[in-house]
Specification:
alpha/beta; 2 domains; about 15% helix; 7 helices; about 400 residues
Length: about 400
């Protein structure tokens, strides 16, 4: 069976983090999200992959190349304009084997092989479904549970079901006739194609999965993705751990990294290559620290993602936060977490707990403080002793 991975989109709702990379290449547990999808397919026995790329395609193609390094074979097809998921699928029509079923799945979710099991066998169209605490963020599915679904509605304000679409389908080449019909109506998304099939009594089975499926819709969701990706992490130690360091739980330390005396690290935690941590630093569970990161003495990092080439000076506190690449935090920087109301896309979104989100190459001066819910744009600078309560656009200066 072939698999089509949809990886062409930008992920605008995850800005500022996607301004310089596609959503599928955002890192959790120090790996691009897309790598978890490729690994899940390989573990499920599917190694013939077609990847639809567009925004940031060079980053994807450079990282994965032909797929051999990951035990799969990858061919790339470009979607010049990101018009929708059905339009993306249409780009691979000539690359698929005739008369054979194939999988279609998004490249921006954390999944495992168990997620795919329901659609690895059987006939006809099928959609993998799962339960969600926030159905209004997804396509809500009525009916199904192994039988043909009754309806699917994208991001409804009101809903009677907590069963949602994962965006993972089993289809066959007959689907392309339906794609053409729906495209002629001006619709280019797979949800509309499914609705078209249902109106014509063409069954699409809803197959619940017991496997992993975690999505990031907003930047703060990456913290949850990171925790999920680290939940089955195992320890490796290629770096140096000095005497007097306390390690608890699964912890990985990359080559050339040093954990200095007095550090306390409680896993799951992953630390990349070439890092200098400590002395006397606390790193709490569900934290991923990228490559070439410096964390100064007496700092504390909790439940956070720290991008490559970041520098965190002494005495900093970072909680439930995402730092893009190349960020510089001055001494005694404070980024604490708590409930937040975040204005985004004309809405005021209630987030139960978050710290801050910083894009690439941000600088925070000594004794600066970012309150929960702050988004700081790429390349922005915050002067020393400033308390930031509201989000900051790209390349701004807070004086």
């Amino acid at each position: 069976m072939q698999a089509v991975i949809l990886a062409a989109g930008e992920g605008t709702r995850l800005r500022p983090l996607t301004a310089s990379r596609p959503k599928v290449m955002l890192r959790v547990a120090n790996r691009p999200i897309l790598r978890f999808v490729v690994s899940a397919l390989k573990d499920a026995g599917i190694t013939d992959l077609l990847m639809v790329v567009g925004y940031g395609k060079e980053q994807i193609m450079t990282y994965f190349e032909d797929g051999r390094r990951f035990g799969v074979s990858i061919a790339y097809v470009e979607q010049d304009k990101q018009l929708g998921t059905a339009h993306a699928l249409a780009q691979v029509r000539t690359q698929l084997k005739p008369d054979s079923p194939f999988l279609v799945l998004p490249g921006d979710n954390i999944i495992d092989a168990r997620t795919l099991h329901p659609v690895l066998s059987g006939e006809g169209y099928a959609l993998v479904t799962t339960r969600s605490d926030t159905p209004s963020k997804y396509g809500v599915v009525s009916g199904g549970n192994g039988e043909p679904i009754e309806a699917i509605e994208e991001k409804p304000e009101k809903f009677d079901s907590d069963m949602v679409s994962t965006g993972i389908y089993r289809l066959d080449p007959s689907i392309f006739a339906h794609l053409e019909t729906v495209a002629a109506m001006g619709r280019n998304d797979l949800t509309s194609v499914v609705q078209h099939c249902l109106r014509r009594n063409i069954p699409v089975r809803g197959l619940p999965t017991s496997g992993r499926w975690v999505d990031a819709v907003y930047p703060w969701d990456l913290v949850t993705l990171n925790a999920t990706a680290l939940s089955d992490h195992t320890s490796t130690a290629a770096g140096t751990v000095e005497s007097g360091v306390v390690l608890k739980g699964p912890i990985s330390v990359g080559a050339g990294s040093v954990l200095r005396s007095g550090c306390y690290v409680e896993g799951p935690v992953v630390i990349g290559r070439g890092c200098d941590i400590g002395p006397h630093v606390v790193i709490a569970p569900s934290t991923a620290i990228g490559n070439n990161v410096q964390v100064g003495p007496f700092s504390e990092v909790r439940h956070s993602i720290i991008g490559n080439h970041c520098s965190i000076a002494r005495g900093a506190t970072i909680d439930h936060t995402v730092l893009g690449e190349g960020c510089q935090l001055g001494p005694n920087t404070s980024i604490t977490s708590g409930p937040a109301t975040v204005p985004l896309e004309g809405l005021y979104l209630q987030v139960p707990r978050m710290g801050a989100i910083l894009g690439d190459d941000c600088t925070v001066g000594a004794h600066g403080a970012l309150l929960p819910g702050v988004l700081v744009g790429n390349g922005s600078t915050i002067a020393p002793m400033r308390v930031v309560r509201d989000s900051v656009p790209d390349h701004a200066r807070v004086l």
